[in-house]
Amino acid sequence: GDAGFNTSSNTFTQTVHRLDTTTSLTSSVDPSRPHQNVVFTAIVSAVDPQAGTPGGSVQFLIDGVDMGSSALSGGQATLSTTDLSVGQHTVTAAYQGDDTFKGSGDALVQTVQTVGTTTGVASSTNPSAFHQQVTFTATVTADDPDVGTPEGMVQFTIDGIDQGSSALSGGQATLSLANLSIGDHTVQAEYQGDETFSGSADTLSHTVISAETSTRLTSNHNPSAFGQGVTFTATVDAVSQFAGDPGGKVRFEIDGQDQGSSALSGGQATLSVADLAVGDHSVEATYLGDDTFNPSHDAMSQTVTRAGTAITLTSSSRPSVFGQSVTFTATVNV
Fold it and tell me: Considering the entire predicted model, what is its pTM?
């Protein structure tokens, strides 16, 4: 107061509110792949741009699990992780606020996808011969070359029948076998995939043909003498050492005349004759083949010479007397 007025007073409460903020959450890569490093960034701003930059910390949660807090620097806080599994994940950033700024938050859905792959299957020999060993190779590559080389298992099937699985090594898996029947076969290689890579498959048509053979014709006497017995032997072998021994029959011809067929036994068939005329003869042996082995042929020239002879001369009376009748006999032997 003063000389003219009495003293008086009053009080009131002044409330100072913290400033509002907004939080924005982003991902460095979305979608991401398994084990890929993903950085989540929370940007916290004051609603009033004149209020300055908020301080404090941001709490991160992934699928409701606390991932810890990160201090704001220049209005930003980050969380890095490589542990996200395949699927969708809810990521939340909650600004805690401080004495000046209110808290705020944001959330996003992070998708983690497996990496696509491409599988190619090839045959070591196509077509292959019956009983020939064939190796099928499956090559699996990642569609994104920066991801690395796929690992895991490849399942092989032939004509829909499971042939078992083989582990990838350097992106390749193999299947070797030698028991394919003659004809066309469908071969499939299916990569099973893993937690990083998605599966893929490929097929090819593989053909197995009859095994090639070779026939070799020999004579036990060449040249032979007229009237001498001669045996011709046809030896039939598979060209591939894995094909086994050919079966079936061999047809013989001499000078174009059919001499009949002889069954193979231990890979050999024979023809014996003793009535060849003097001179040169064309002898042929033709393996007729079967369901497994292809035909083959060989020929040779057989020479028949005149037979050697020996003459024995005898006398009916030796010595004889003058005037006695004597008979001389000449005997010719072969």
Answer: 0.66
